[in-house]
Predict the structure.
Amino acid sequence: MAGRRVVSLVPSLTEAIAVTAPGALVGATDWCSHPAGLDVARVRGTKNPDVERIVALAPDLVVANEEENRAPDLAALRAAGLEVLVTEVRTLEQGFAELARVLAACGAEARPGWLAAAEAAWRDVRPPAGRARRAVVPVWRRPWMVLGRETFAGDLLARLGVENVYAGHAERYPRVPLAELRGGGAELVVLPDEPYAFAADDGPEAFGGMAAALVSGRHLTWYGPSLAEAPEVLAAALRGT
């Protein structure tokens, strides 16, 4: 499958493909920020891809994700005759498996070194001694939305000794009133800088005196080369609270 033309609609997969199968990517979303200097056609966002532009690029494969991308857009691409590979990533193990599947479909000739390094880094992770810290993990405000059940980011945090208060919620990204978030028994709020750009002056103040950990959204939510350094980066942010 060497020489395949690929359009990626998932920022983390864009990075993985770009560093593993150079030259395969011909298109990516406007949100695909890594690797720096990526020079491919841009096809708007993950939720509003420019279907006509993607079709005009004549890719052999479009890479998508069941969470990042909308089913009607993917159906339109298939109706136009394009092959669409849809990933599902709700755990770290799924992330590793789907990365291997995507890279093989894109024509990668061998398992990349960064993927082996990421697997090794997470295999060595041991949560801190003692009970897990109960946390809420907002991903948006106005309205407040948090991590719920079966999320990739929630799985990573659990491996680092953080228990998501809403891990048993019926929804994967529930909207929860701030008063409930503050009064639900959490001792920690974890605030990633994407998709909402939480910062020291935008987020922690809403939770009163609760300990707040500002973390890298790329390391918490992306499945790609960043996974190799994610355990160290996330653990350091959590230790600071």
